Amino acid sequence: MYKVLVIVGPTAVGKSSFGIECAKAFNGEIISGDSVQIYKGLDIGSAKIKKEEMMGIAHHLIDIKDARETYNVKDFQDLARTVIEDISKRNKLPIIVGGTGLYVKACLYDYRFNDEEKEDDLYEELSNEDIYNILKEKDPLCLSKIHINNRRRLVRALNVLNKTGEKFSANIESQNHELLYDAKIIGLTMDRDKLYERINSRVDMMVNEGLVDEIKGLLEEGISFDDQAMQGIGYKEFRSYFEKGASLDKVLDEIKRNSRRFAKRQYTWFKNQMPVTWFATSELEKALSEVDRWINYKG
């Protein structure tokens, strides 16, 4: 059973830098668990790690998708498991640095998806928006994981609902299988007010680094706010700026508010869904020692 180190926690807490520290200490390579950093060109708004910040550590599942492509939890599961096997066979430690909780859980656990069903013809008279609105009424929770342009997933969710009477979201969340790996999950925390200050400062820094120009360039390349890649926090809020003339200050306030709310949801999700060992960011030496004990445990 391969060992896999996982580093989770809220946005802006410092997961990336700690992941690199662990990779240097334990001969590891990083696997990004982020659902936006997968896309080329979405760099600043996703807080994508810069090459010079990687400190020579290999990073995987970053910049491998075009911004027009869709990407979902099953895609991540398949890609991440392949990378874990490759890293492990080279006698290195796979380190998932995660933001998207469901992605991480689906990778680590025997987390099954129903076989894809070729039943799109049943709904050929329905637009994506029609199917989306049906699901919004009957199973709104599933839409947090399915973009309106991802017709295959929309149809699949509606098939599950119509054929079994079971909500697609319940079908996923009810699974509680065993870990496929010898996984150590480290969670990073910090004082809430300090974290919120870091989030606010990071948003301001993104603007100074050229976030507005980054998004303008994406739009000029034909990327749309309707594309899945642009649904992440830090991008979707700019729709009102470019299409309705909203002020930059208003957009930035919205990004900061959404980021703080997301951080709170991340804490709650990981505490309830996975066996995380938590450390304050002031206790990183203790966290490293915990990882060292796990790696060298002979039991």
**Main sheet, how many strands, which sense, barrel?**
6 strands, parallel
Element string (H = helix, E = strand): EHEEHEHHHHEHHHHEH
Spatial order of the strands forming the largest sheet: 3-2-4-1-5-6
**Structural class, please?**
alpha/beta
Task: Please give the alpha-carbon distance between the first and last residues.
Answer: 13 Å
Estimate the mean pLDDT confidence. Answer: 89
Report the sheet-strand fraction. 5-15%
How many β-strand runs? 6
- The coarse silhouette is globular
Question: Helicity level, as a percent range?
Answer: 40-55%
Radius of gyration: 20 Å
Uncertain residue ranges: 115-121
Describe the structure.
By secondary structure, the chain is α/β, with parallel strands linked by helices. 47% of the residues lie in helices and 11% in strands. The protein is globular, with a radius of gyration of 20 Å. 38% of the residues are buried. The model is unreliable at 115-121 (pLDDT under 50).
Give the structure's gist in a few sentences:
The chain has 299 residues and is of the alpha/beta class.
Describe the structure using short key phrases.
6 strands; alpha/beta; globular
Task: Lay out the secondary structure.
Blueprint: E1 3-8, H1 15-26, E2 28-33, E3 59-60, H2 73-89, E4 93-98, H3 101-108, H4 128-138, H5 151-164, H6 168-173, E5 182-189, H7 192-209, H8 211-220, H9 239-244, H10 248-273, E6 277-280, H11 284-296
